[in-house]
């Protein structure tokens, strides 16, 4: 088990990570979810011993690794947000370089490189220089580089931000394969709820440097078990209508979206006629009303009053 215990990191008087405790059991796929600036990258750097905490501890199978990180470094692979590759070398040459750092050589090194190129779907382009790759392809090579030493724990920092759909799918597939078929323990950081819901069995939600909720996706959704999400598709946006709905008793949250409004409301409230009347008063036409069970995104909205992408 890899564990963070009451981690804190203060940068020049600003607390970026505030008493964060989390654990990864072997074989788990765990999500760390939070908006930009929540402290996810700093938490990852602390857990992987790239950064020293202001206080708190990181433990591998019960033993602190802060003073002696070597043991941890052998079993952990970190995929940072920034691409850390040699642009003037090919994908093959980059992986060879990283493999050598982990003391792989000869046939073993060659096999590992080809295995990982296959996993990331770039075997046929391995001889091309990194600088000719798309952002998504570079990300995929960056992931392979972190896997050269067959780490037991893989920590990924928002690996799908700003990349093309094909690379995104490849990355999600790679995470699945690593976790479900190879049994690798994964900590997956993201601000995309749907990715975490698909990939992870347990989730930590982080905001302003703190863990504000933790549990299985089911448990977290149960935070909203007494509530429904109401999606109103409107013919035009209307700030005043949103404001009026916010003041209705059963309405917990109102979020404005491109096509209308999203309301988190108390279950079984007889709200629809009030909503329809309010829309009529504001001369807004309701094109469609959809009631759905809450998502993790809604849980986040409920806990913080903000959306993940704010
Ligand atoms: N080296 C540093 N020096 C000063 N402040 C920092 C440093 N690194 C991070 N911070 C601050 O700590 C806070 C948390 O940043 P962090 O990068 O961990 O968040 P994040 O959740 O990973 O967000 P993002 O998705 O934008 O990377 C931010 O306010 C950031 O400005």
From TrEMBL:
Q: Which Pfam families match?
A: ABC_tran (PF00005), DrrA1-3_C (PF13732)
List the PROSITE patterns.
ABC_TRANSPORTER_1, ABC_TRANSPORTER_2
Q: List the membrane topology term(s).
A: Peripheral membrane protein
Compartment(s) of residence:
Cell membrane
Checking InterPro entries in the record gives: AAA+_ATPase, ABC_transporter-like_ATP-bd, ABC_transporter-like_CS, DrrA, DrrA1/2-like_C, P-loop_NTPase
The keyword Transport belongs to this UniProt entry's keyword annotation = yes
Gene Ontology molecular function, alphabetical: ATP binding
Q: Tell me which residues make up the ABC transporter domain.
A: 2-233
Give the highest taxon in the source lineage.
Bacteria
Q: Which UniProt keywords apply?
A: ATP-binding, Nucleotide-binding, Transport
Q: What does the similarity note say?
A: Belongs to the ABC transporter superfamily. Drug exporter-1 (DrugE1) (TC 3.A.1.105) family.
Can you say what this protein is called? ABC transporter ATP-binding protein
